[in-house]
Amino acid sequence: MSGSLLPAIHSDFTQRFGYEPLLVRAPGRVNLIGEHTDYNGGFVLPAAVDKEACFAVGLNGGSRIRLVAHDLGETLELVNAAEISPSDTHWANYLLGVAAQFQQRGIAVPGFDCVFGATIPIGAGMSSSAALECGLAFALNQLLGTGLEPLELARMAQQAEHTYAGVQCGIMDQFASLFGRAGHVVRLDCRSLAYEYFPFDTTAARIVLCNSGVKHSLASTAYNTRRQECERGVATLQRHYPAVLSLRDATLVQLEAHRAELDPTVFRRCAYVVQENARVENACRHLEAGNLAAFGQEMYASHAGLRDDYEVSCAELDVLVEAAKAAPGVFGSRMMGGGFGGCTINLVAPEHVDAFIASVSAAYQQQLGLKLETYQTTIVSGVGVVPVAVVQA
Ligand code: GAF
Which residues does the UniProt record annotate as the domain GHMP kinase N-terminal (predicted)? Predict the structure, then answer.
């Protein structure tokens, strides 16, 4: 259990509440390619990684919900679990939103206690919020014996984000946290939710994240705006091509043919999504062929599209990607996640990782006066129970 918060979370829970909880870990995720495609019915290529949220959860036999953010030293108590509503306490909404999803499905939520903490850096684009949602959804499903399938838990976690956090996100992050498989990336068709695992060979490339350390404040508003712009594009295309249900069905030829009817910004947003979907398909073929150089080129093209057409990058991320291009042993680099800050994801030859980190850190310091934090991630399995005996070992 080295490096895990679970031992501390476990003892915090037993000291506060005096009974044994269920222990659950829920990983954050990386996404190799396929950004802002999930809510357009398209393709993504994420993996669960070794930065995680940890939970100790138990039913308390009463009607109170007692939530403890271990890292922050903050608590929130709700007198009546039957009356859940959004809270002014930001972090609590990810958890309350999940409990509300059980209720919406007609599943009564009795009083419960939850102590949680996370090693996922907040605002780094590694889905700390999805990990919180998925971890509690999984824990309550176990404790209540509701037997909901993991896909349903992913949908509930996504809905919690929509209704209690106000972000109209797609399903990638929640899916990756629940369905991650150690040593594999997963290609998800976000429309059919069909998925396929691809082995990721860490002897050929390591996944290194460079955290810009910035999170621009309008990120969630801008995210929702991007989604609306895509929907406007689809509405226009649908008048001509009724089979276009989402941008996943659209082509560049169709967009070009009706360019005059589309707002120029909407056109660029849609063109980016259509191209990014194609890049995910190409990238999977390159991964299967073991062609990391070609895979990396798709990553660079993805970043250029996110920067120029989708406009969700920022100066700090652009500096990091340019610095990566100039560093030794790099196959590819791009911003990752919703954007406006957070991390870049970099595929780096194992023998060059140290030199890569030194080189990008120096460039970041020199060009922006900022200190870079980096993470070498490993790919782990999705949300799961951790036996108390393992935590105490
Ligand atoms: C965020 C969202 F939560 C995801 O659903 C996805 O849209 C991503 O941004 C961009 O690809 O992480």
Answer: 93-181
* Same-domain pairing of 225 and 102: no
- 306's tokens: 């996110």
Relative to the CA of 39, which ligand 1 atom is closest? 7
Query: Cα angle at 38 between 97 and 245, to 5 degrees?
Result: 110
> How confident is the model over 288-347, as pLDDT tens digits?
999 999 999 999 999 999 999 999 999 999 999 999 999 999 999 999 999 999 999 999
Looking at residue 325, which CATH number applies to its domain? Answer: 3.30.70.890
Point out which residues pair with 195 in neighbouring strands: 188
> Which domain, by its residues, includes 118?
5-201+380-392
Residue of 173, 191, 209, 306 best suited for mutating to test ligand 1, as the one with most atoms within 8 Å of CB? 173
Q: Which of 50, 173, 249, 309 is the catalytic position?
A: 173
Angle between the N-to-C axes of helices 150-160 and 128-144, in degrees from 0 to 180, rounded to the nearest 10: 130
Question: What is the residue type of 231?
Answer: E
> In terms of domains, do 9 and 152 share one?
yes
First to last CA, the chain: 8
How much is the ipTM here? 0.99
